[in-house]
Amino acid sequence: MSYQSDLGANPLIIDDSNAAKLVDQWRQEGLTFGGMQRDYNSAPFGSAARPSRNFQYTFESDRGKLRDRIQRADENKTTPDDWRRASGVPILNQGSWGYCWMMGVVGAMMTSYSMTGINPPHLNAFPTAYRGKNGRDEGGWGEEALRYINEFGVVENSLWPGLQARMSNWDKQEVQTNAALHKVTESIELPQSDVLALVSVLTDPKNPAPVPIGLPWWGHLVYAVRALALEGGKFGIFFVNSWGLDWGDQGCGILAESKSRAAEQIAIQRVSPLVLAA
């Protein structure tokens, strides 16, 4: 029998049979979305890569090899999810703001920090989205989040707690200085709707990385931290949401392969060295 991942006792698996019903349910519960279709005319494919260079990443596309890589990553506990859990990366909560597109990227940043082996800073995604949108409660996409992050940085929650809608906080020197320490220094764009490329990055033997993924069927952006080997030769994606710890499995869920086809997916491979923020 081919390898299958351990999904736990009562996993929340979103698939074709329940996705539409769940999205309706979440809307009725008052949960906020905010993921928008990226404008590829103004932000063409590749523009989210950092640094901007002609870099060729080789994605593994053989399903058998990918399943073997999932098994090794699970057994060795080397997935981005293992690092995230071990370091206690916080689950973000966007509240009533449509800033999932920023929350997912910043969550992936903190997970990338955790993969350096040092406790990651607790970053607050809200101020960067709030400044980028000039105080407006608007949706966006991952590439847009990266632009704002590289322009303004991301401040730690201790200096700007929670969802304080106070633009004057940005006038504080300590906020500006701290935010400038936290930026994405290396990222790659994965081909749209390519689940095998996503599995390949999550299970890369040398440099696995968390991947923010924009899902049009949901109108939402989350970040992927682990690839799963499911029955029938299919893959699944374990992801982290931005609706707080009470949602799903402590803020996380599982996408079936058919629901993992993202319109935008950006691997966060490197962030500003944490030693600079000490």
Brief characterization of the structure:
The chain is an alpha+beta fold and 278 residues long.
Description:
The protein is of the alpha+beta class. The protein has a single domain, classed as Alpha-Beta Complex (Cathepsin B, Chain A). Helix content is 29%, strand content 15%. It contains eight helices and seven strands, in the order βαααααααβαβββββ. The chain has helices at residues 19-28, 63-76, 80-87, 100-114, 126-132, 142-152, 173-179, 195-202; strands at 13-14, 184-189, 211-215, 220-229, 235-240, 252-256, 264-271. It has a seven-stranded mixed beta sheet with strand order 1-6-5-4-3-7-2. A hairpin with a 5-residue loop joins strand 4 and strand 5.
**Fourth CATH level, the homologous superfamily:** Cysteine proteinases
CATH C-level class is Alpha Beta
Measured by DSSP, the beta-strand proportion falls in 15-25%
Gyration radius (Cα, Å) is 18 Å
Shape category: globular
Q: Output the number of helix runs.
A: 8
Q: Briefly note the structural class of the backbone.
A: alpha+beta
In spatial order, strands of the major sheet run 1-6-5-4-3-7-2
Please state the average pLDDT score: 94
- Terminal Cα span: 49 Å
Number of domains: 1
Unreliable segments of 5+ consecutive residues: none
Helix content: 25-40%
Outline the biggest β-sheet: 7 strands, mixed
Order of helices and strands: EHHHHHHHEHEEEEE
CATH architecture: Alpha-Beta Complex
State the total count of DSSP E strands.
7
What name is given to the CATH topology? Cathepsin B, Chain A
